[in-house]
Specification:
By secondary structure, the chain is mainly α. Helix content is about 75%, strand content about 0%. It comes from Nymphaea colorata. This is CBS domain-containing protein.
């Protein structure tokens, strides 16, 4: 998409981690 800020990367990583924890 273009420029991804460090903050967005952190937010995405936390969201993915949270979703994976909910699946288990």
């Amino acid at each position: 998409v273009g420029i991804i800020t460090r903050g967005n990367v952190v937010r995405a990583a936390l969201q993915l981690k949270h979703e994976s924890e909910n699946m288990n």
